[in-house]
Write a structure and sequence with these properties.
CATH topology of the largest domain: Dehydroquinate synthase-like, alpha domain
CATH architecture of the largest domain: Up-down Bundle
Strand content: 5-15%
Strand order of the largest sheet: 1-8-5-4-2-3
Structural class: alpha/beta
Bound molecules: 5,6-dihydroxy-NADP, zinc ion
Number of domains: 2
CATH class of the largest domain: Mainly Alpha
Radius of gyration: 20 Å
Helix content: 40-55%
């Protein structure tokens, strides 16, 4: 097992009817900015319930944080934090609203041009650059990203989508009430299953380091998602199934399964360019890239792919090649069974656009991906060609 630090201070408040806990976790004298997205939380009445839970605190609202939250939108919220002396942020929404709120929190305390915060990639922003944040909590409405219990965000600016990581950027608390996700459109539920699945494979399908407990936890999450995937999409109000979906998604990216093991993230980094260029939903981009990447990287990932085939998909017979082939095929079929297409061409993107994606990767300096940094632009190109 590799050396690791594990730190996660987020207080999880899980289950039905937990909104009243907000009162306990937000300082009584706080001036609060509620942040939300395009209106689903308003329409469902959730924002009103959150305001009721905040009682007599002074509350402001900032709506309109879009999917793949944009820097240009978020800096408007920073203005409100400044002008109204906000000292607590409360994100009500999915990964985009939570990520956006993390950025608002960092940017408010940053003295220079807050675009600087987009430059650090997957490395945490050093404390001497950003040593303070505005505290925030979250009310999660979409199980997918794990943003409710991690310190990462993904922020869009011009023609880029930038990871922003900071050790100071964990939510103080997150309310995970599965019933708040019942209003999701089916496609977003399916996206959520796929995103959580791929977060797990990014930290599991690498090379073995004898992280036995991490492997078993990752396999548990993958098997749970496989078991509940179709039902959580088909039966939106099935509480038990949705509860397992929510908790799987949180555990997939709260740092636990990734501690002490190699991590890949090439699927995500290539996928991000597909969102930026073609507007494909985040989870759909990773559904396109992952099966193809596993195919192209089968030698580097051979041992873990065989373990995945045997332990996750229970493939017992056949040669090593056949087991790997079948595991990749089953992964693709699983995504498709949820209604998520896995070929780039099915999203109206033809092979002649691949050079544009490669140019974008190059422009963003994404030229050494994977758990060993050996995915060059040529290999990314091969992965995209194979994803057609
Ligand atoms: O904006 P509203 O009107 O609220 O509608 C949203 C949005 O259109 C809707 N929605 C959310 N909860 C709902 C609901 N509709 C009805 N009922 C509800 N309960 O769903 C749509 C998508 O929301 P979004 O927040 O964009 O989805 P998701 O949670 O999948 O987040 C995706 C974003 O997270 C980033 C992605 O890159 C993308 O920008 N990620 C963040 C990560 C992290 N912080 O750790 C890791 C991920 O890999 C990912 O990169
Ligand atoms: Zn993701």
């Amino acid at each position: 097992m590799l050396n690791f630090d594990f730190y996660n201070p987020t207080h999880i408040i899980f289950g039905k009817d937990r909104l009243q806990s907000i009162d306990m976790h937000v300082p009584a004298d706080a001036t609060v900015l509620i942040t939300y997205g395009g209106g689903s939380a308003k329409k469902s009445g959730l924002i009103d319930k959150v305001k009721t839970a905040l009682g007599n605190r002074k509350v402001y609202e900032f709506g309109g944080i879009e999917p793949n939250p944009r820097y240009e939108t978020l800096v408007k919220a920073v203005e409100i934090v400044r002008s109204e002396n906000i000292d607590f942020l409360l994100a009500v929404g999915g990964g985009s609203v939570i990520d956006g709120t993390k950025f608002i929190s960092l940017a408010f305390c940053y003295e220079g041009d807050s675009r600087d915060l987009l430059k650090y990639g997957l490395a945490p922003i050093p404390f001497e650059v950003a040593g303070k944040t505005v505290p925030f909590g979250t009310v999660l409405t979409l199980p997918a990203t794990g943003s409710e219990m991690n310190n990462g965000a993904s922020i869009s600016y011009k023609q880029g989508k930038y990871p922003v990581m900071s050790m100071l950027n964990y939510p103080k608390f997150s309310i995970l009430d599965p019933t708040l996700t019942f209003t999701l459109p089916k496609i977003q539920v399916a996206n959520g299953v796929v995103d959580a699945f791929v977060h797990t494979t990014e930290q599991y399908l690498t090379f073995p380091v004898n992280g036995m407990v991490q492997d078993r936890m990752a396999e548990g999450i993958l098997q749970t998602l496989i078991e509940i995937g179709e039902t959580t999409v088909a039966e939106p109000e099935n509480y038990d199934v949705r509860a397992n979906h929510v908790w799987s998604a949180t555990l997939a990216l709260n740092g636990l399964i990734g501690a002490g093991v190699p991590q890949d993230w090439a699927t995500h980094m290539i996928g991000n360019e597909l969102t930026v260029l073609f507007g494909i939903d985040h989870a759909q981009t990773v559904a396109i890239v992952l099966p193809s990447l596993l195919e192209v990287r089968r030698e580097q990932k051979r041992t873990k792919l065989l373990q995945y085939a045997e332990r996750v998909w229970h493939i017992e017979s056949g040669s090593e090649e056949e087991k790997i082939d079948l595991a990749i095929q089953k992964t693709r079929e699983f995504f498709e069974s949820l209604g998520i297409k896995t070929h780039l061409s099915q999203y109206g993107v033809e092979a002649d656009k691949i050079p544009v994606v490669i140019e974008q990767l190059k422009a963003h300096g994404i030229t050494a991906l994977s758990e060993t940094g050996d995915i060059t632009l040529d290999i990314s190109q091969k992965i995209l060609e194979n994803a057609m």
